[in-house]
């Protein structure tokens, strides 16, 4: 697919993600950038390898990182196939994302930091401990109430929106790593002398043979 | 001759100035220089070298924010476009109203090669109906020439650029003569499913045509076909074709291609043109206006050196504007003089009128037959291997549809390199899983969604036009464009038809539609400009009274001024404009050469 279609397709994949229109509007508003964090501009070096923190400072506190680690690993735990989210740098990615000097990311920062506060508050009221110190079973008890926004109870509506966004970012961070690509069994991005199309076993499974 | 400064350009003499370096400017300069004309090319953006600047195998984890789009890189970090997008800093444009439905968005790329560096590479020929639409159904405008007249130039561009496709014998979907096209890539499993179930709905699914080298170009056969009797041009082109590698079926075309395996002006048109020694290119040269001599002929172009802010005048016998349709219109509207107070070449009053984009609407579906497939490489040529040409010409002409013109369908799916959004919003399928179950769900659903996008013809209308804003100027002090936009019921109903058709396709495949199927096309249609197929604004025609140029895209008012981009297009077929821009630019450049040889220019 062409790049434009890719973007539109991806955007179509989640109503909570920015739209093209939104991006265009935000261009006009992006002047209020925090002093320390600068956008990478319209002509960044595309050949360089970037790490989280290279372009703008990471800003999560150690408490917030602990909450992020607990929640990301609840969403993407280690299993027989692949490691957990935090083991492959997803927390740094989340930190890079919510510290970025763009409107979409500033909105996510608000959603996510508010969500972390809510999680700790909810954990304290249910179990008298912050979220990061709960047992997995206790953490699941809270997350079961917020993991599916369309069916969440009214008092959990905002928390469910936060959870949906956080799950998208955690999974997005995870599946873009080498370990994540391997987990999904993505086998491309290698030069081929010829392109043979789908093998017979694929056609058979799809009902085409 | 090569890359020079504006100051150096003022000290040299040229036959032709070409403003713009994309599909139109690249093709124009190629044709002219291969036949010996001395050309000065002006590009507003920076120099760009795809051989050293293309991120070919970089993965998303190596990019800021895992490569997602930002306002700085609106199609993603690794998209080839630099210094471009929906907004260009310091170079605003204005909406005539605040009504969101009337908004027009304008993608610009300030870089050598312009938008050809990142485009989708879909290269479809207009058909015979597309040049004579008004004669056929009474809508819109005819072109002042026919398909037969431009067909030889489609052949040439296909052979030069390298375009894959097939011959299907379908209505108003021309087959290329033997020897023009490269073989189409093998279909993906999602293509084959679409073909199988499309057939049950009467929708044809055939090989797409895209500018990607599925094989190396035949450097022995093609140069002689393209430049008969011109040994020098043949030798230059043969050598250059040998330097272009065949596609290796990895990395996205939108990043550009350092092996020159797809078409970008910077990898296909400009290298051989530079090898002739007849082409000078000045980058960071922002054209402000076309100047006139005392006889009313174009004398040159006034240009701003973006690095120094200095204004400089360059001259030539002929001026060609190929700056992209709307930028070309802007330059003409800003070229005001006592004889042309409303802008140059605008005695008809039609300059800025009848601007068009392509109608776009999309739907996404999830196809259970594509779940949990055995891993296999689906990178392919990174764009559509297949597509559906418009199939309801007869029904439409018989008045059975509530919109005037057709659309084609671009679609795709597959196990592409995971992005931040690969699993986003997946709870519509999973009911909100997280933990070990989420990882299982991701493996199951990865590669099982497909998109269907309609690309439809917009009819020109009186309410869609651009003009110079009376107040706003860009950072160079050049007045900017203000846009008026309105979709008519033709486009709105067409968008609704797209949604209905895509839902039928998805459901016939046993899939589920994501989101809502819109029966009101206004809720499905993309904004004006969003498909980035804008053409029109300087309509060509049969008469100086109601058109800006003649059939040679030569301004009626100024004999040595030509427009070779999409600005003179009287209609915007569903076929995506780039191939037609290139074919027409070659045709016009041949005409310029002919007139220069006859000393008429």
Automatic annotation (TrEMBL), chain A:
Highest rank taxon of the organism: Bacteria
InterPro entries in the record: Gluconate_2DH_su3
Record keywords, A-Z: Signal
UniProt signal peptide: 1-27
One Pfam family in the UniProt entry: Gluconate_2-dh3
Name of this chain's protein: Tat pathway signal protein
TrEMBL record, chain B:
TM ranges: none
Record-linked SUPFAM superfamilies: FAD-linked reductases, C-terminal domain, FAD/NAD(P)-binding domain
Cofactors, names only: FAD
Glucose-methanol-choline oxidoreductase N-terminal domain location: 16-335
Pfam families: GMC_oxred_C, GMC_oxred_N
Keyword list, A-Z: FAD, Flavoprotein, Oxidoreductase
Gene Ontology MF terms: flavin adenine dinucleotide binding; oxidoreductase activity, acting on CH-OH group of donors
Domain Glucose-methanol-choline oxidoreductase C-terminal: 462-585
Keyword field contains Flavoprotein: yes
Similarity annotation: Belongs to the GMC oxidoreductase family.
Name of the featured protein: Choline dehydrogenase-like flavoprotein
Lineage: Bacteria, Pseudomonadati, Pseudomonadota, Gammaproteobacteria, Steroidobacterales
